[in-house]
Amino acid sequence: VQAAASGGGLVQPEGSLRLSCALSGFTVDSYAIAWFRQAPGKEREGVSCMSNNDGHTWYVDSVKGRFTMSGDNAKNTVDLRMNSMRPEDTAVYFCAAERLGGTKWTDPKGWHYWGQGTQVTVSS
């Protein structure tokens, strides 16, 4: 089971970027999926989460209204569309799958499967 993030890069403030999480060994409908990010010197934090039951999404306050998470069953990917980006969005972004329960979705300890991250840098 793997969840590999891609699509990172350098973007200017107020710009947009789309990240993709390619799933292997399971499908979009198998598990809840989340996006996390980790900036240098900071702890990994939850960014968004999508239910595998009904597709409902949750977002951390700092990205609400700017980021959109969606699943593509045909491609078996989960994307994160990021708009109006800010320098504080700079981080390595990871996707995770299957909640282990007992913690808030924003807690990285509550997720089972992780893949390699992709670097996102917001700078002029």
What is the ordering of alpha helices and beta strands?
Answer: EEEEEEEEEEE
Shape: globular
Helical/strand content category: mainly beta
* Rg estimate, integer Å: 13 Å
SSE arrangement:
Blueprint: E1 2-6, E2 9-11, E3 17-24, E4 33-38, E5 45-50, E6 57-59, E7 67-72, E8 77-82, E9 91-99, E10 111-114, E11 118-122
Parallel strand pairs: 2-11
Antiparallel strand pairs: 1-3, 3-8, 4-5, 4-9, 5-6, 7-8, 9-10, 9-11
Describe the structure.
This protein is mainly beta and 124 residues long. It contains no helices and 11 strands. It starts with a strand and ends with a strand. 32% of the residues are buried. The model has no long low-confidence stretch (mean pLDDT 95).
What's this model, at a glance?
The chain is an all-beta fold and 124 residues long. It has no helices and eleven strands.
Key words describing this protein structure:
124 residues; mainly beta; 7-stranded mixed sheet; 11 strands; 49% strand; globular
